[in-house]
Amino acid sequence: MKSLRLHLFAILIAATSLIWLSAFAWILLDSRAKLEHVLDTRLQAAAHMVDSLAADGGKVASTGIVPPMQASPEEANYERQLSCQIWSMEGRLVARSSGAPDVQMTDQASGFSQRTIEGEPWRVYTIEDSVKNIRVMVGDRLGMRDGLVADLIKGLVLPALLIFPLLAALIWISLGGGLRPLNAMASELRRRSADDLSLIETRRAPSEVQPLIAALNSLFAKVEAARRHERDLTAFAAHELRTPLAGLKTQAQIALSVTDPAIREGALRQILISVDRTSRLVRQLLAIARLDAGLDDASRETLNIGKSLDEVINMAKPAMGSIKVDVDPDLHRYVIQANREALYFALRNLHENAIQHSPEGGAIAWRIAPEGKGVLVEDDGPGIPLAELPFVTQRFFRGQHKSSTGTGLGLAITEIAVRKLGGELVLQNREGRGGLQALIVLHGVGPT
Amino acid sequence: MRILVVEDDDVLANGLKIGLGLAGATIDVVGCCADARAALATSEFDAVVLDVMLPDGSGIDVLKNIRAKGDRTPVLLLTALDEIADRIKGLDAGADDHLGKPFDLDELAARIRAIARRQGGRATPQLVFGGIVLDPSTLATFIDGQPVVLSRREFAVLSTLMEHPGAIRSKDEIEARLYGWQEEIESNTVEVYIHHLRAKLGRATIETVRGIGYRMRSAP
Fold first, then answer.
1. Does A263 touch chain B (CB under 8 A)?
2. B68 and B162 share a domain?
3. Would you give per-residue pLDDT tens digits along chain B (220 residues)?
4. How many whole angstroms separate alpha carbon B31 and alpha carbon B170?
5. Contacts of residue A59, Cβ cutoff 8 Å, sequence gap at least 6
6. Residue that is last in its domain, among B71, B87, B119
7. 195-254 in chain A: CB under 8 A from chain B
């Protein structure tokens, strides 16, 4: 598992180190250049000084050459920094400072030069004094110069090395502090029980964490809604299944306990009614299960809409009573590529719904939709109250004016089936009169 | 005993009307929350059998409404879910009892008698006054230990008078207990039943309080 804290820590430490290393490198190069310049200038100055003190022919004026720094005791580390040699033009060593090498430091006539003397690299400045007939050479060891730069860097790096762990600790602690809201949230969520879907407190959270909390809260809300829907569905299903059972049991107990044949016959009739209704409920539940399980999409065939409708209407004949059904003959001229079962479920449940809500002697009319975009059916029933229209396709929704024979599943099945057909179910009350118009918008409807 | 049944499934409602009627009760049936509220606001019932899931809302809301108005009519909830949480919700809303669908008709009748009895402040199932004992569960009547045969309506009139012995019950009150809304009330039936009861139990048991109603006579 990747730790955000470790990750941030590594990035911050790497960035800090990089900046510090760049700074050291820059200081190193810059100081070295400046130091070279200063020390070179010193070599030049020392050479001129020695030259001016030297007498003709190289006779040193008084006590000989003593480099000025050597006098100062605190410069002991850089003891014998400068070495000086005075050579005659003929190549004879006239004088040299103590500690200066015996051999000629350079064979270059004048100016700066670098030479390796006795295994050590030197930098030497030479003045040729033709008047006094001497050559003055002043040099210092490059090793000494490197030592100076190294000392300078050491002076910077040592405190940095001491500060670095402190800085790292500080970064680590601040990161911990910065990530605390996340930890607090995590532990709050850990403590929750599985069905606690209350929203997370956002007030105290920093703005960077807010989007995460908002996303989590919206997820919680969705899960809660889905769960409530599931619970409602279970409750509806239990009610719709158990109420007829309770009715059956009650009527059966009455039939068993009474001696009055009229009451017994009444009870037995009620049992018949209830069994019929319950079998319809079972049939519809099985239809939903079939649709939910997914119909075989490959089994599409060319179906004549009018003929499919005729089948459905024939099946429903016993329930129609005095209700008249009018099928537009045009419907027989249209075909659709679709799953037979899905089309059948859609048409059958719409037809049954229309029958259920039609008054005695009412009329049901099946028509082809405008521009042949589907099928529509109209009935003379009471229609659906506007407030209930959005809900009638929910499973087990029966509304306030439900019929005694409804199951609350018909329009739900129609809608699922229509969606399987790739179409859309549009329900609206007929304008200017009672009744419902149900339109199945289907794609790929064509003439035979 | 007059019972309001609030149930939208007509087969079950019919079964309850006939089944509970056979057990000696007068039943009125309504099928939605609005009708239940109206019925409870206008008539007195000894008990209510309330379905939880009704087409225009929840029976539990109806229950909360009537309890908020101070109506203490005993209520038995009919539930479809066996979940404990739902039962607790019902009881907390003011239900006196609940029964899961499907249920046994005799158990339902017994539970209704029990909640109605508790409402009347009695612990024993029998109604006792003087030497008269009424057993609502079997519709049996005894005088001094001897069984007496009463018709269903005669039993209903006598139990109305014996629920609160000493209290005067008006003719209208007794009629309300005898008939549901749909039933035709004959003008002098209460007098007829009182007459029959006096013939079977002895003239002195029921006293006529002129212009007000009837009551059990305290010292026969």
1. yes
2. no
3. 889 999 988 899 999 999 998 888 889 999 889 999 999 988 889 899 999 888 888 899 999 999 998 888 999 999 887 778 788 888 899 999 999 999 999 999 999 999 988 877 676 778 888 888 888 878 888 888 888 888 888 888 888 888 877 788 888 888 877 777 767 667 778 888 888 888 888 888 888 888 888 988 865 4
4. 30
5. A94
6. B119
7. 234-236, 238-239, 241-251, 253-254
